[in-house]
Amino acid sequence: MKMLFGSAADAATLTATPDMRSTLPVTNLQNEFREMVARTSSLAPQDVAMVWVDPTPISACVLYRNNLSSAATMRFRVYDEPTMGVLLYDSGTISADLAKPFGELWWGVDPLGASYFDAFGYSVAWHWLPAPVVGKYAVLTLNDPANTDGYIQASRLFVGMHWASTYPPMNGIELTHDETTKVYRTEGGSVRSEAGAVFRRLRIAFDKLPEVDRARIVELLRTVGLRGDVYVSVFDGLANAYERDYQGQFKLETKSPSVINRYSYIDQEFVFVEV
Fold first, then answer.
1. For the stretch 217-250, what's the b/e string if a residue is b when 16 or more beta carbons lie within 10 angstroms of its beta carbon?
2. CA–CA separation, 107 and 100 (whole Å)
3. In the 8-state DSSP scheme, what is residue 26?
4. Which element (helix H / strand E) includes 225?
5. Which residues of 113-134 are buried (b: 16+ CB within 10 A; e: fewer)?
6. Residue 149, Cβ neighbours under 10 Å: how many?
7. Which residue, 118, 116, 200, 121, is CA-closest to 155?
């Protein structure tokens, strides 16, 4: 499992090339609200640049709740300075979507190139660096010239250092699809619904996490707590519907105690609610 808590992009100065729409600027990527999106003004290749005052460790980049198509690509680069003197990391041009492999297509229904996110309502683009780098400048390049919306948009940009648990969560992972919909019965006996928002609730538990994980969990509970949002991917690397369904932008809903059952090993439970 991987978790990116706190986004270093929030502390960066963001610029977009070309400029995004004035009413939906690139700075909307620095808040946690799903309705405040950043939107391009065209389908030209889009750069989102991040500048930090201090050197910043980076091991992951996630563009959340976007409208990228299955043909979209992304490229993520990190430099030592805004002058782009030393290139510290370059992902190259990679897919920005979770495409279904040939054997997973629903024959007669799915077109070639279908994505696991096609019926999800939005897409998520992520990239995990093979090793952390420390820089003061990063650029995310997006390209989706065939997007039928006529623009590219997203609601959140996560960039920073992620935590990868030494061991996977215990059996019994719980995923609930909750909603604020109100169901009531009329005087005539009919059942009516007032549609509300749909969101997920995720419960995961670990046992016998070693000291290196305990230290990162303490960092999460102290610096983010119930206040900030995190990006969680329980089944990272599977590249299938499991990875899609058990990843997302969440907040901790409850703070569970860290239980030491033996020296240097802890048990820990997390309950997340989708943002």
1. beebbeebeeebbbbbbbbbeeeeeebbbbbbbb
2. 12
3. G
4. none
5. ebbbbbeeeebbbbbbbeeebe
6. 13
7. 121
Contact 68, 41 (CB under 8 A): no
Q: pLDDT digits over 144-199, tens only? A: 999 999 999 999 999 999 999 999 999 999 999 999 999 999 999 999 999 999 99
Strand partners, 179: 198
d(CA 61, CA 128): 7
CA of residue 20 relative to chain centroid, distance: 21
Given a contact cutoff of 8 angstroms between Cβ atoms, the answer to whether 91 and 131 are in contact is no
Distance of CA 267 to the CA centre of its chain: 25
Which residues, at least 6 apart from 168, have a Cβ–Cβ distance to it below 8 Å? 1
φ/ψ (deg, to 5) at 19: -60, 145
One-letter identity of residue 192? R
Token representation of residue 60: 């992951």
Enclosing H/E stretch for 23: none
Contact status, residue 196 vs residue 180, Cβ threshold 8 Å = yes
Compute the distance between CA of residue 175 and CA of residue 245 in angstroms, rounded to an integer.
9
CB–CB of 38/154 below 8 Å? yes
* Helix ranges, the chain (H): 211-223, 241-245
For residue 127, the cross-strand partners are 61
Strand partners for 139: 49, 77
pLDDT by residue (tens digit) across 226-274? Answer: 999 999 999 999 999 999 999 999 999 988 888 988 888 899 999 999 9
Distance CA 220, CA 4 (A): 9
Query: Taking the model in full, what pTM does it have?
Result: 0.91
Strands 123-143 and 73-79: antiparallel
